[in-house]
Write a structure and sequence with these properties.
The structure is a single chain. The chain has about 425 residues and is of the alpha/beta class. About 40% of the residues lie in helices and about 20% in strands. The chain has 14 helices and 14 strands. Helix 5 packs antiparallel against helix 7. The radius of gyration is 28 Å and the shape is elongated. The termini are far apart. It comes from Glaciecola siphonariae. Monomer. Associates with the 50S ribosomal subunit.
């Protein structure tokens, strides 16, 4: 579809240090992204600027330097650690004479490699098509004319218009399919809400250790690796917690600085698991020197997707890489857990994490002492089935005296099934 240079495996990286905080990026993170994409780093060019230049994003002198470096290193692609406009990409490619990619294109490429499920592939394709649609004009400038000559006259539509129409059609088809997926997810969420099964969603900066922690807690065996965006497709697993019962744990895609808006929009169905969770486990790589900035970036994305007000429990991960740090639970002034220090890799502190999870979720529990007459055998059977009995004895009149602790959802469900209100059996 495009009249562009081929992309190879050897890349020259370009990182500009801006004085403006909004445009700042991390060179080390770019190198990790490039490594995750399976590209070899042939060289790095850095520069400092106050603001981007309109034509080349960088100064013309620096652009010439990049062209010379590409030629001497025989590189196949230049990757910028910033977002470029379509015209800047076009101008740079014309000058450097090789393919130019920006940070957004690189992230989209990694996502395309990682997608495993049908839904994940659709979401990535949608984000790629939206990104490509803004760059179509460059691919077809040489064809932006109507066909002429005998037997070649078309319906009056230029090649560019044809491709834009095809892209729009494909985007609409993907959106229809994703709408079906979203409905299925909503049905699952509604049924969990009816049963009042709490949902816990893992969030955090990419490569913070979310999937490793998820595997340690659930034995799920999902793919985990020391690379950016190892997890793309969401995974849900049921976990059993003392005093809470069943809970759903969701592993989600990692966040990153300036996550492309097209990706946020494309992954709306996936990120809804985060929006509608009862609790967010914010996993932080505490061994990373930039952990504070990474936490801020995650909170920015959470705000963007409407999950800012969901309660958070911070998981300080990778303590095995720190000196003199032991597993522990940090609490606020009211005694509620706010941070848990763990190592998902070694399993240190996982027992404390489960204790903290129980404390955060058990607000949905009810505890009562019941006096149940002998003729209420059905109610006794239901209580035994739920395994919610903590203590039991018999009164002189033959009534069954029982202490129970159960989910409020189970309490309300039984209340609807029995002939009398459960509150009539409660001993105050």
């Amino acid at each position: 579809m495009f009249d562009r240079f081929e992309t190879g495996e050897n890349a020259v990286l370009v990182h500009i240090d801006f004085s403006d905080e909004q445009n700042k990026e991390d060179l080390q993170e770019l190198q990790m992204l490039v490594s995750s994409a399976g590209v070899n780093q042939a060289g790095v060019i850095t520069a400092s600027r106050n603001s981007p230049q309109a034509k080349y994003f960088i100064g013309s002198g620096k652009a010439e330097e990049i062209a010379q470096t590409v030629k001497s290193l025989q590189a196949d692609v230049v990757i910028f650690n910033h977002s470029l406009s379509p015209s800047q990409e076009r101008n740079l490619e014309a000058l450097i004479q090789c393919r130019v990619l920006d940070r957004t294109s690189l992230i989209l490429d990694i996502f395309a490699q990682r997608a495993r499920t049908h839904e994940g592939k659709l979401q990535v394709e949608l984000a790629q098509l939206k990104h490509i649609s803004t760059r179509l004009i460059r691919g077809w400038t040489h064809l932006e004319r109507q066909k002429g000559g005998i037997g070649l006259r078309g319906p009056g539509e230029t090649q560019l218009e044809t491709d834009r129409r095809l892209l729009r059609g494909r985007i609409k088809a993907i959106l229809r399919r994703l709408a079906k997926v979203q409905k299925q997810r909503e049905q699952g969420r509604r049924s969990r809400k009816r049963a009042e099964i709490p949902t816990v969603s893992l969030v955090g900066y990419t490569n913070a250790g979310k999937s490793t922690l998820f595997n340690t807690i659930t034995d799920a065996g999902v793919y985990a690796a020391d690379q950016l965006f190892a997890t793309l497709d969401p995974t849900l697993r049921k976990v059993e917690l003392d005093e809470v019962g069943s809970a759903i744990l969701a592993d989600t895609v990692g966040f990153i600085r300036h996550l492309p808006h097209d990706l946020v929009a494309a992954f709306k169905a996936t990120l809804q698991e985060t929006q509608e969770a009862d609790l967010l486990l914010h996993v932080v790589d505490y061994a990373d020197e930039q952990y504070r900035e990474n936490m801020d970036q995650v909170n920015e994305v959470l705000d963007e997707i409407g999950a800012k007000d969901v309660p958070q429990l911070v998981i300080c991960n990778k303590i095995d890489r720190l000196d003199n740090v032991e597993p522990k639970i940090d609490r606020d002034q009211e005694g509620r857990p706010i941070r848990v220090w763990v190592s998902a890799q070694t399993g240190q502190g996982i027992d404390l994490l489960k204790i903290a999870l129980t404390e955060c979720l058990r607000k949905t529990m009810v505890s009562h002492t019941l006096r149940i007459p002998p003729n209420e055998g059905r109610l006794r059977g239901m209580l035994y089935e739920l395994n919610c009995i903590t203590e039991q004895s018999y009164s002189e009149q033959g009534d069954w005296l029982v202490d129970i602790k159960m989910l409020s959802a189970d309490w309300h469900r039984i209340d609807k099934k029995v002939e009398y209100k459960l509150s009539e059996f409660v001993i105050h």
